[in-house]
Amino acid sequence: MSETEGTDLNAMEREPPIWTPPIGQISSGWQQAASLILCAALIVAGVYILSNYLRALVWALVLAVALWPAYDRLRRKTRRSFAKKLLPILVTALVGSTVFLPLTVLAIEVVREVHEIVDYGRSVEDSGIPVPVFVSRLPYGGPWLADWWNGHLAHAGWAKDFIQQINTSSTRELGRSIGLNAIHRAVLFGVCLLTLFFLFLDGEAVSSQCLTASRKLFGERGERVALQMVASVHGTVNGLVFVAIGEGALLGVVYFFTKLPHPILFGTFTAVAAMIPFAAAIAVGLATLVLLGNGAFGAAIIVILAGLMVTFVADHFVRPKLIGGATKLPFLWVLLGILGGVESFQLLGLFLGPAIMAALMLLWRELTGASIRRVV
Question: Closest Cα to residue 87, out of 188, 79, 241, 205?
Fold first, then answer.
């Protein structure tokens, strides 16, 4: 062997050969990219198709997560197979009745008061609405408000003049829009109840599939985040819904004994408003104004004092304990999650806001090793 040939052989041994992937692996890479593009396109198309029903689906998921512990205990106590099959239907019907019952009570109250309202409207049309005594005594704007009231509401025939000024075409358009909106919301509510029924029926399978998917996509961290969000929904339901119902019931009793008109209606309104922290004061203030308008100053003071006491205890002691203990969130972030969630997602944000904040706080603690009970 010559010297040049030996040199060439040594160079070939030192330089690694250029690797070229087999044709099958190249096509496999293209297939993976195409599969990802197809999956993304299908997800986008599915979200677009369900865009009008996403809120109903999320509401069903929130209700299923919140009610699952009680439903599971009831299911375990039920031994007959026939009763277990009927249990999802019964629980779903119970959830639906809790929404329809306040509306039914409101409709009954309206029907009962129709006659009085018609008589009051006729008397108002004939004689006008006199200026309440307390209006002119208001420290700011009282005289101006009394003059405006005398010019627009205190004279006879003001209702007829007001109706003539309304554009009838715009009124019909407004009525049509309200009717279509009511039908749309009724359909969404039906979709929510139907989804809730199937979640109760196959809840364990759905939960297992979601945990499996979170482990495959995000590992153990994804499972911890999912469990933390579920716990935050439970705590939020206990701290917002149940506490609000308690506030409405207690203040409803106060409304009844102070002889406030329609105490059940005001109690229901107080419970709904109390789901938002510090919003129950609006309902208490409205009830106080009604009592002041009727001249019941002592009853108005009782309502104010009872409302301040009940809302103070609920918003400063009970709610932070229930929600913060389950979500492992300081009260500041609970409050910001609720308010920001309501602003972004309306009533649904009451539950989504704290759940999202709890997940973010969990990721932050794992990243920084911060203590659970830190304020910020």
Answer: 79
